[in-house]
Description:
Elements: E1 3-7, H1 25-32, H2 39-45, H3 51-57, E2 64-68, H4 74-81, E3 85-90, H5 93-102, E4 107-110, E5 123-129, H6 137-147, E6 148-161, H7 166-175, E7 193-207, H8 209-217, H9 220-224, H10 227-244, E8 253-266
Parallel strand pairs: 2-3, 2-5, 3-4, 5-6
Antiparallel strand pairs: 1-7, 6-8, 7-8
Helix pairs in contact: 2-5
Amino acid sequence: MPSGLPVSSGGAGRAGRAGGPKLHAHRRRELGQSFQDGGEHYDRVRPGYPADSVDWLLPPNARTAADIGAGTGKFTALLLDRGLQVSAVDPSADMLDQLRKNCPQAHAVEGTAEVTGLADSVFDVVSVAQAWHWCDPLKASTEIARILRPHGTLGLIWNQLDTSVAWVHRLSRIMHAGDVHKPGFRPVVGPEFENLESHVTSWQDAVSPEDIMELTKSRSYYLHANQATREKVMGNLEWYLYEHLHHARGELLALPYVTHTWRARKA
């Protein structure tokens, strides 16, 4: 399990549009479809989240949570570990099958951030980890506000490679890691929410070069690419990791991450 070294960065304010990936609705749906299958592979190669992220997100006395875009349950597990009753929502039946194996205590539901299928006003917290950029943020905000109790908390969480480290920055370009946000990024949330705040956790994941290549295969750019593009990406990674950086096969290296956690309160 990854361990977080907390570096907090707080600040309240209104939601803005600066710096994030800008995807038209059709392209967002097209890329998002890449994750419909491959739940076991995704679960095996994707990193988890630092405990510091969920500890900062949760309000005092939270009892119930909905994890939207839950995937295979990596953030769901942290919510369950804190003793919350959790409903996990994802559009992929394959991902939910893996989630049920990982988190049998969670109530798994097929749905989306825009149409969760969950009841009105029953959750203290709604989290969206590594998935908000696949959502229509205004429609999703309206739906999430519906299922939250008064003054409930919306949490948006992103793991991203720490591109302030030079070798990781080049790695992210070779991997086409499109979820690395630009400085000043603030997620868009609807008018149903206020007091948007952020928190940053820096941590490292112990991985091998082979793990990094498998991680690349779980990303939307690779999944949506043709065979020639996939071979080019893998060839570039092999050159960079083995020849340029001189890592040995099977060697463990510390891959730096930052986890950006945002929270907002239902107005």
